[in-house]
Amino acid sequence: MKKQFGKKGKQLTAVIILAALCTACGKEKAGQLSENVVETEKPDKESVADKEDTAQPEFQVIRQLYLYSDEWNDIYVYYPQLTGFEDAEKQERINTLIEMDAKEMIGEKNKEGDYAVYHLDLNCEVEFVNERIISVLYKGVRVNFMPKDARMTPKAMASTIDMEEEKVITLKDVVTDFSELSDMLLRDEFENITMWGGSTEGFEASVVVYESDLETDLQARHQWYLDEENFIVIIPNTLRADYNAYSISIESVRHILDETFLKSIEK
Q1: Of 105, 108, 216, 246, which one has the greatest count of Cβ atoms within 10 A?
Q2: DSSP-derived 3-state class of residue 165
């Protein structure tokens, strides 16, 4: 029964992913195990390093594909890798850090005996990069296939890496006042930039976020990123099993951000 379900689930996966306009990738036959990394071209979205009027780092960003496929899992995640560093050993360490961080955020894979087939398809977008900092947004879809049902939910993850210190930067590393950060979210000073059903309305932080848990949750999670002008926090929506991204200008939160971090993102 498991093998028959796995085959049907994998066939249905392809249909749903195409409908969701996610990246389509080839995969192994059911029952075989594949865990590969495939080098690919730059993301379709123009990277920050390619934009005019922006100081360009002396390295390039490419995409690689992490692929894991067996009877209980179909996982396809693009993540960034760097090339062109003068220090090849440092480049390898940073690339390993980015790869391991992406895999850690994927979470635990399904195993033999699990009730559902776990499918995950994520693309990556480099939202910010300079000589020291790279900030990445991963977006796509997660599907749990069960014998008589399939549940598809949007999925987003984010990671910011300090390439000089060679570490993942958490919110604890950059935010100096979590009470103020929580209050600003609950006062809707952050703009909801995630569109559901063709609209961003109705998903403001003051509406969907639990006030009592917010400050603790923010300190426990590193789901945040930045672009050229904005600071963005991703908060799971437990009522809908999806997420919302809340954005505010970096200038508006400068008073609660670490000065060393602010200097590190200067161009």
Answers
A1: 246
A2: coil
User: Could you tell me what percent of the chain has a pLDDT over 90?
Assistant: 47
Q: How far apart are CA 71 and CA 94, in angstroms?
A: 32
Q: Tell me what pLDDT residue 130 has.
A: 95
Tell whether the model's pLDDT for residue 125 goes beyond 70.
yes
Token code pair at residue 62 = 């490419």
Task: Kindly give the residue spans of alpha helices, DSSP state H, lying in 139-210.
Answer: 171-174, 178-186, 205-208
Identify the residue whose tokens are 């940073």. Answer: 94
pLDDT digits (tens, 9 = 90+) for 93-113: 999 999 999 998 887 777 776
Q: Please give the model's pTM, rounded to 2 decimal places.
A: 0.77
Closest listed residue to residue 205, CA positions, set 163, 160, 248, 176: 248
Closest among 140, 115, 127 to 25, alpha carbons compared: 140
CB 105 within 8 A of CB 117: no
